[in-house]
Amino acid sequence: MDIDDILRDVDPVIHTIPREKRDLQDLTRAWVAERSAPELLHWPSDGLFERINNSIRRQIEKVEEMTGDMDPKTNFALIVIQTELERFKYLVRSYLRARIAKIDRHTLHYLSSDELRSRLSEMELAYATRHQALLHNHYLSSFLSSFPPGLQNLNDTAGNISMIDTPDLESAVFIRLLRDTLVEGRGVDSDGRLEMEESDIVILRWADAKPLVQLGNAELV
Amino acid sequence: MPMYGDLGNKLVQHAKRTQILPHLPPYQTELVRTVTREVRDLHRDVDSLLEPFQGSFDPAADPASACTLLVNHLSMRRNKRCLLAYHRTRTEKLEVLVWNGSDVLDLSAQQAGGANGVPGANDGGTSSLSPQEEDYVRQYGDLLAAYKGQWTDVDLTGSLEPARDLFIDVRVLKDAGEIQTEYGAINLTKNSQFYVRQGDVERLIAQGYLQKLG
Amino acid sequence: MSYYDVDSILTDAEKIPCTFQFDIPDLGYLENNPGQTLKTGARVGLPLWLAEMLAIANTGGIGPDDQGKSFVAFDLPPALGNDVMQALKADPRAIPIRDQSAHFYSLATHMMDLSDEPELGTVLRKTFVTRAGEIALHARKAGGGGSSKGGASEEGSNLGVGGAGEEFLRGLDEWERKLFRKAHDGARAGKEWMEGVKKF
């Protein structure tokens, strides 16, 4: 069950919205969520970005066709399309950059299990793997290769501190409820439980918010 | 007398400074070499301490040796952490420069040449990067180019400021004749509305010919 | 805590007063006596990364006196000592905690993990909350600075740059400095946003 299914329940109109428009909504939602969540979220597996990439390409071609036309009406349409195109490109760029920043900060963590690896797109996985290899190689050639063999690893988790840095899942996020739900959050001194209503906005720890978001009861804002 | 780990700490202080500085300070070749050597010395000490026991060392029977071994192990691990943090801080800075499209290798050569009053003060190097860092910059540049290449239409390294203000709706209050824009001429007749690039009409708004809507 | 985090590594370099509980022949250098035995009862300031592990490591001692004994016993560092705590109780804002340690809170939370000091926690929490409020005030002042049209209500504040305000900001530890920067950027972004809204 994903957010679309829920929205369809709530609002059957959305089902009839044309695909391109729905893709833009999905992209916007993914962008907001990715920028709020302290950890990397799943890459959309429904081909969203393939479709968006194609749509961007089509618009660019359209712009190129129209640029030769000197009719003022065409020029006006051109401005509209170009603005729309800039907005599309900005969303994709900002979304991808937010993800790369998270991947770069905790590369080994995201490469450490199949579950975590599955959150990355194929291109991101290739990038992360290669980036980590470059870093390891850089450390080796700068100093690490003259260390005793037992000390050359970059992924030791023994000792009092793990070498694999992980994102802080306890940091705060804002969520908007998509349906009436019981919200439970852990505090410093005491924990809180609250019956909340659709469209209420709450701030709480990501670790507490995550199950609500995954069940589709809430979305990140 | 300096103890094990003190020099490693110096490296991390350099790293802290590196985070704040706008440019990349010179690579601490000598310090890195010394801290690395310290790790090898410590490891040799551990080996020679353990040698008489022939692999059957019992820490409970000899707490004094166990303590020495622990101190040596911890010092090695500490140095390793300091060295890694120092190098990671620098590569992070280099990666930012690569993303920004700076010619890092050229830039660093200029910096070292200009900023250093005394020629040859830094082991005669002309760059603030170590040779390994120069390699890293090249390789990371290739990696980034490959990743960007999959998103050519989006221009991944482009602006991260939303293009919100680029175009605005305007209503024409007084006939203003024809203006030239990047998209061709627009004829501004009274009461017509246009969606235009803000930069093209800012002056006309100020002069009262156009009114911004929205 | 993060392996590559520079501030975390620098915190671990803070010296902790330790007392050795064994004679250790090879560690005389820690006391500036290389080649000499480090005697039981010797007091040495050791960096946290070393003190911590020597204090919690299981020595596995089998002698009648050695059981359950760790290599070293440690005390709270002077930065968290009684004098500082008393002064913080009196007025958290009056102490430049940076002079105690540039990583004051980080050191304190680390030490609280290692030892059972309930009062330390209480004092530090009050210190943090009081100082954080003060930091937010300064940040808003600095962030909203410049054109202060309509900000007349703040004119009477004595938080201006210079004087007491400057001295307070100088005394912030690393963590508080980060907080200040965030609050400052937040205040500025908020102001820019408000001005953006006014334009429409």
UniProtKB/TrEMBL annotation, chain A:
Keywords attached to this entry: Chromosome partition, DNA replication, Nucleus
Record InterPro entries: GINS_A, GINS_bundle-like_dom_sf, GINS_Sld5, SLD5_C, Sld5_GINS_A
Name of the molecule in the record: DNA replication complex GINS protein SLD5
GINS subunit domain: residues covered: 63-141
SUPFAM superfamilies to which the protein is assigned, alphabetical: GINS helical bundle-like (SSF158573)
Lineage, broadest ranks: Eukaryota, Fungi, Dikarya, Ascomycota, Pezizomycotina
Residue ranges of domain DNA replication complex GINS protein SLD5 C-terminal in the record: 167-221
UniProt-annotated location(s): Nucleus
Automatic annotation (TrEMBL), chain B:
Cross-referenced InterPro entries: GINS_A, GINS_bundle-like_dom_sf, GINS_Psf1, PSF1_C
One Gene Ontology cellular component: GINS complex
SUPFAM superfamilies hit by this protein: GINS helical bundle-like
Domain GINS subunit positions: 50-151
The keyword Zinc is assigned to this record: no
Pfam families: PSF1_C, Sld5
Record keywords: DNA replication, Nucleus
Highest taxon in the source lineage: Eukaryota
The keyword Ribosomal protein is annotated on this UniProt entry: no
Compartment annotation: Nucleus
Domain DNA replication complex GINS protein PSF1 C-terminal: 165-213
Gene Ontology BP annotations: DNA strand elongation involved in mitotic DNA replication
Annotated family: Belongs to the GINS1/PSF1 family.
General function of this protein: Required for correct functioning of the GINS complex, a complex that plays an essential role in the initiation of DNA replication, and progression of DNA replication forks. GINS complex seems to bind preferentially to single-stranded DNA.
Subunit and partners: Component of the GINS complex.
Protein name (database record): DNA replication complex GINS protein PSF1
From TrEMBL, chain C:
Chief location category: nucleus
Keyword terms: DNA replication, Nucleus
Listed Pfam families: PSF3_N (PF22466), Sld5 (PF05916)
UniProt xrefs under Gene3D superfamilies: 1.20.58.2050
Every DNA replication complex GINS protein PSF3 N-terminal domain range: 4-56
The organism's place on the tree of life at top rank: Eukaryota
Domain GINS subunit: 82-194
The protein's name in its UniProt record: DNA replication complex GINS protein PSF3
Organism: Lasiosphaeris hirsuta
